[in-house]
TrEMBL record:
It comes from the Bacteria. InterPro entries: CoA-bd, NAD(P)-bd_dom_sf. It comes from Chryseosolibacter indicus. This is CoA-binding protein. It holds the Pfam family CoA_binding_2. The lineage of its organism: Bacteria, Pseudomonadati, Bacteroidota, Cytophagia, Cytophagales. Residues 2-116 form the CoA-binding domain.
Length: 121
């Protein structure tokens, strides 16, 4: 299945990033949760984004950080060399989307949860 990096991962069960981690796991996708808070989601440790962890063979990055916080992570996210970046509702960012597309990365404005349920993931 598709290795998916979750930027903005959290252990807070009320957050969409947590719900995405759960659903991706249920759909048998490998998750790599990355965020600012320590913890574990569905058996996988949340990696510290400030350490810019190296992740190989990334299919998808799904964003759960707002556009105002994204610029400091542009280079890191693009260095992961994902095939696509999903800009979930509230994370849309035309500047970053354009940068990604210029590097051959598909930029998708969509909802990971809906995409999974509708088999568009």
């Amino acid at each position: 299945m598709k290795k998916t990096v979750i930027i903005g991962a959290t252990t807070d069960q009320s957050r969409y990033a947590y719900l995405a981690a759960r659903m991706l796991t249920e759909y048998k996708h490998e998750i790599v949760p990355i965020g600012i808070k320590k913890g574990e989601v569905f058996g996988t440790q949340i990696l510290d984004i400030f350490q810019k962890p190296k992740v190989e063979n990334v299919d998808t990055v799904t964003l759960y950080i707002g556009p105002q916080r994204q610029p400091e992570w542009y280079d890191y996210i693009l260095q992961l060399k994902p095939k696509r970046i999903i800009f979930n509702p509230g994370t849309e960012n035309p500047e970053f989307e354009k940068m990604a597309e210029q590097q051959g990365v598909e930029a998708v404005e969509g909802c990971t949860l809906v995409m999974l349920r509708s088999r568009q993931f």
